[in-house]
Predict the structure.
Amino acid sequence: MAITISSAFDSGNIRVLDEVTPGHFRLAIHADAGGEFLQWFHFRVSGAKGVPLRLDIMGLEKSAYPGGWPNYRARMSADRQRWVQADSRWNAGEGMLSIIVTPDTDMLWFAYFAPYSMERHHDLVARMAGRPGVSAAVLGHSLDGQPIDCLSIGSGPRQIWLQARQHPGESMAQWWMEGALEELTDPGSTVSRKLLKKSRIHLVPNMNPDGSRRGHLRTNAVGANLNREWAAPTPERAPEVLAVRNAMDRTGVDFALDVHGDEALPHVFIAGFEGVPGVTNRQLDLLRRYQAQLCLHSPDFQTKIGYPQSAPGKANLAMATNQIAHRFGCVAATLEMPFKDADDCPEPVEGWSPARSRRLAVACLAALGDIVDELR
C-alpha cells in the first residue's frame, strides 16, 4: 500500500510537494489567513509501518519565526494521547526541517506542538460547566460563528481574568488552561479554596477558535493577529477580542494573565507592562512580587531571560497585557511557554509537554494566591 499524508482534520496543516524516493517526502506549511504567518503544522502519515521516513518541511526561511527551528524537535504520537519528540534536523541553508523516523505502527501523527482540538475544548467546557460553583457563558462569537466560551468561578470581590490561545498555534496555552480549571474545581485544593473565597475568576480557554480549527499559527479567520487588536477591536476584524474586552469592562479587572507560547526562547517567562503610560509603582511592585512567588512554586519558571521591556510610555496598547494594565490600572502579564524543551529543566523524551503546561498552571494559581490579598 502507498504511504499517504493527510491534514484534512481539526487544526491540520501541511501540503505534500512530492515524494523524492519511497518514504522521503518534501512538505510545506500553508500560511495563515492574511499570508503573514506560517509555522504551525499538524498531519498524519499512514501506511508507513516499518518504513524509514524522511519528512522534509521546506520553505521555513520564510516562516514567521526562523529562530524557532534551531534545536527544535517536532512532536509525534501514535495514539494522539502521548506526544514525544521526534528526531528533527534543522538545515538553515536550505530552510528545511527534516523529521527522521521509522514508524512501528500504521499511523503516526506529527505536530508543531501537542494539539488541543476543538472537540477537546468542547469536552472541557462541558465537563467544567457541570461542576459545582462554575457558571458558563458565551461572551460572543467568532467570525466563523464559533462561541467564545467563558467559565467563571468564585465568590470574592476581586476580578481575575485568565485567557489563552489568542494565537491558536500556541496550543500549550490551552493545556495550561485545562490544568487551571482542574485545580480551581478541585474541592481538595487549598489554593483554590483561598482564591475562590477572595475573588471571582473568569477563564477564556480559547480566544481564537477559528484559527485553532483552521490550523493557523497566529491569526483568526480574516488574518487578524488578535494580540494586536486590543486598542480598537471591531466586529468585522476581531469580534473575539471585542467580546472579551467588553466583558472585562463589565466586571473590571484586578489581575489578568494572557497565556502564550514562544517559538524561539527555550524558557518559561513573563512579559509585563512596564512601558504602559501612567503605570504606577504599585502595579510594578505587585508584578515583581508575583514573578518572585512563581519562581518559588515552579522550577520551570525563571526571570533572567525574556523579552526586552518597552521604554517608559511607549508600550503597544494594542496588545492585551498592555491594554488591560492601562485600561484598568491593574496587574497584567503575558505568560510564555516554549515550543522547544525548557533549557532550565530539560526532559529528553517529551520536552515541554501538555503535562508540564498543566502543572505550571497550578503553580501560577499558587503564586496568585500568595498576592491575592494585595490586589485592590
Observations:
- The helical segments are 118-129, 172-184, 190-198, 209-214, 239-251, 281-297, 320-328, 354-371.
- Residues 4-111 form a domain with the Immunoglobulin-like fold (CATH 2.60.40.3120).
